[in-house]
Amino acid sequence: MKKKILTIILIILGLTLVLYFEIDAINSKNKSEIKIKVYFARKNIETNSIIKKEDLKYKLIDEANIEDDYCKEIENIVGKYSNSLIKKNEIVLKSDLLSNIKKRVQNKIIPFGKAQFTLELSAEEANGWQINDDDIVDLMFCSSTEKEESKRFFGVKVCSVLDENYKKIDIISEENRPKYLVLVSMDEDVQNILVLEDHGKFKVITLGK
């Protein structure tokens, strides 16, 4: 009796394994039949240069061969800065990209107590930006009493989008374009607000000190 039960269990396990491998094979086949656009560099893209549409080309690749770091949407590439050299015919990776704001504001030192810092951008750089709630911008802040070598680094997270009256905008549309995009970092009781104004100007306001 025990042998029969053991035999039945082994048969069930065997059938389960066969079914699993068949389903896996079907899924792999389906993925290989689905083609996804993956973007490549049409020419060498130098480090810290703005990526333009004409710098890119795409190929259709089997979904099964797609990796998470591949760029599949051109909207997420055009207008970004290259974080490193992207050679001709290389796949453009997410890790190759640096957001416009991060590129322009990084390594700028803003002492606490300074009321305003403005950064000029070209019209091309300022147009068409999209800043989402989960975007991170890297800024460097240091206290005015601290020495240059004792800089403190803060990741600045987008927390709100405000209109020209500094009132929060919940829904952004073509008819309801914000004048300001506000990013905030906190250090003890000090609040640093980075404001993106019209014509691509940044203004940093320090509150609470």
UniProtKB/TrEMBL annotation:
Q: Where is the SAF domain?
A: 37-97
What domain of life does the UniProt record list for this protein's source?
Answer: Bacteria
Pfam families documented for this protein: SAF
InterPro entries per the UniProt record, alphabetical: SAF (IPR013974)
Protein name, please? SAF domain-containing protein
> What is the scientific name of the source organism?
Helicovermis profundi
